[in-house]
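The freezer alarm interrupted the setup, so I double-checked each line after restarting. Inputs confirmed:
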Amino acid sequence: MSAALPSLVWRAFAAPKAGNAPTEFEDAFAGDPEFGRFAVADGATESVFAGTWAKLLADGCVSQRGPWSGWLPTARRQWAEQCQREDMPWYLEEKYAEGAFAALLAVWFRGPDRWHAAAVGDACLFHVRNHELLRAFPVRHSRDFGNRPMLLGSHDPGRSKRIKRRRLQSDWHAGDHLLLATDALAHWFLKEAEQGRRPWTELLRLETNDEFAAWLECRRNENEIRNDDVTLICITPKGFDLKAQGRAAHPGFGMNPG
Amino acid sequence: MPYSAELSRTNPTCMLFLIDQSGSMAEPFGTQTDSSKAQCVADGINRLLQNLILKCAKGDGIRDYFHVGVIGYGGRVSWALAGKLAGQKLVPLSVVTHNPLRIEPRTRKVDDGAGGLVEQKFKFPVWFEAVATGRTPMCEALTEATQAITVFLRQYPNCYPPIVINISDGKPSDGNPELPAHALRKLESSDGNVLILNAHLSSTDARPIEYPSRESELPDPHARLLFRMSSVLPARLRDAAKNEGFRVDEQSRGFVFNADLVSVLRFLEIGTRAAQAMR
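Predicted 3D structure, all chains:
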């Protein structure tokens, strides 16, 4: 019998790389606040059918409990079924044989005051408490991005080449926030935090995907965020006034949020 | 920061190969292989084009992050992609993809995931064939390259700077190539000057000199000439060379001298690392 979970609200935002069609989006997200499970995935753009793989990964780890080895084989089979075609041109045959790759970051709550996370690749989780960034996982410093991390592949690599996932667990207080972001946004977030700023205040104030897209366009135009697919999940306690939180955390923020 | 433009379909870059097709290219690389230098280089170019295509391949087609071309210089100077691409100069990658000269069925051994090897069939498209006859009109090839790249830059003035890869095994027969090389390197996009990378192919077993940073590291006038014709490696390519195990510094040039087959293949691999910019 599982312990009661905290009451959570989650918001997810997604925007494709500028210049790409929405169908070319290769990130994915999934969430189930009732079961306290959330995930973001980032398909590697050099691989083919990467968006399909990212979605299967995010859905897989949110809908299935237990170790990843329990649901990964099914996800791999589904990827093959969805992507394999007859008469593929030579390059698609090669790419299909290589498989799709993705980063995956999963968070799940165990009880009212504890959560676990597991990660492969450089999608990141940020734990915010009392207007401070408590921890960043798995990448802890902005300089550590861009290192071509190992990713989860859509073909079984065999026992000898299983990818190790990074793990973390932590406590959860009323008033904490978790933000999950794929790498372009995560990189910006860490750089801001390293310079003493509080990047979560802007993100936690966002309500709609249009607001998110507009905010992102500004950051991209200022060359603060690299042009890439972006996905963000904000997990907050239910009943928490996000706009009040934003004002409280940002001294000098006027009465009119603007 | 120069050499930092990201490749996209609306802002592609170009990669242009200048390939020595003189008679001496019919000789083997030192004592290492039975194949001629010309055949080894042709294989290397075909593999490079395959890899470039694979890097740009998506489920719905090839992203044209690159335009590519090949100029052969030997008995004559000519644009060397053949078949349906005959006579075309810089061609978008998707067009190259769909118009190989032929596709050869081949097999290779791959990891079966359980500690063993299994044979796998695959298709090897060929676009460029070995030719080895005549002299070495490198100056004319460089001039032809300059004209084509001038046209490209007019169309894509903000591109990641075009990359010219010149592979030769001996001295030019049509004059001093330093002047046309200089003219080519003076061309620029808003992101930087055109890059020239030179590979000089060995006919002996002398050790290759790879990515030197000082002219004084080089043994003879021809090597020093090619050094002066070669661009300093920008950061992305320098990192690619480091990843391949080369000791490079900020003055290292895109130049390998007395290259053997392995050296040339690694040189070509490093040259395509501009493709890292695709996101």
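Quick read of the result. The CA atoms of residues 88 and 172 of chain B lie 25 Å apart.
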